[in-house]
Write a structure and sequence with these properties.
Layout lengths: L3 E6 L6 H7 L1 H7 L3 E6 L3 E2 L22 E2 L22 H15 L4 E5 L1 H14 L10 E5 L21 E6 L7 H8 L6 E5 L9 H11 L4
Parallel strand pairs: 1-2, 1-5, 5-6, 6-7, 7-8
Antiparallel strand pairs: 3-4
């Protein structure tokens, strides 16, 4: 049986390589049944502030080749999940980048996103269900520390319930994306599957989580 192929969308201030490293435990957990394919966001992030995969902003962190999927502050070219904004910058470039990798490295059975990447993936699912991206044919979605964009320009992605099977993963002690933000995203999906953990802002992959991941994925194999 061929492994499921899942496209992986990293968080803000990460890149394909760093996200691959941080999901090593998940890759090991699912290595017999899943192939994870990682891609870079097209937007370069410059300013040395806290990293998306860090629990605190007390110590500025610059990750080499930091990237993002859109900017909520179009002047500073920066992003905050809780920043209210009217318009964003860079989202179209990111959609194009995903379209290109689907065409060149697809097909993919599913798509996984983390933090800003998870919020972006929810938008991609909306585009797919509206038949606005004919190249997208994801059968399932996995959203880790996801949230609804606070940019009013993105409200168009939240108009209709999405029917794609979804697994939502979030930490009860997440200080970057508080769990209530991830819970707000649940209403966008029909019959969402949920995996909560007591930790913070990371992709959980302990043995206790193995069965939840496998139960969700088995119907697509």
């Amino acid at each position: 049986m061929a492994p499921l192929r899942i496209l992986c969308i990293h968080g803000y201030r990460q890149n394909a390589g760093s996200f691959r490293e941080k999901t090593g435990a998940l890759r090991k957990l699912l290595k017999k049944s899943v192939e994870l394919v990682f891609m870079d966001a097209p937007l370069n992030v410059q300013s040395p502030v806290s990293c998306d995969d860090k629990e605190t902003s007390l110590v500025p962190v610059v990750e080499a080749d930091a990237r993002g999927w859109w900017f909520s502050d179009t002047v500073a070219r920066s992003f905050s999940a809780q920043q209210q904004c009217e318009v964003s910058l860079g989202l179209d470039q990111s959609v194009t980048a995903v379209r290109d990798i689907v065409r060149t490295q697809g097909p993919f059975d599913g798509i996984l996103g983390f933090s800003q990447g998870a919020a972006f993936v929810a938008m991609l699912c909306s585009l797919q269900e509206q038949n606005l991206e004919p190249d997208f044919n994801f059968r399932f979605v996995m959203l880790v520390a996801g949230f609804r964009s606070a940019c009013s320009e993105h409200e168009r992605f939240y108009k209709s319930i999405l029917h794609i099977p979804s697994l939502h993963v979030f930490g009860q002690d997440d200080r970057v994306i508080p769990d209530h933000m991830s819970k707000d995203l649940l209403a966008l999906f029909k019959d969402p599957h949920i995996l909560t953990h007591p930790g913070g802002h990371f992709v959980p992959a302990a043995s206790a989580h193995r069965q939840t991941y496998k139960d969700f994925l088995k119907s697509f194999q």
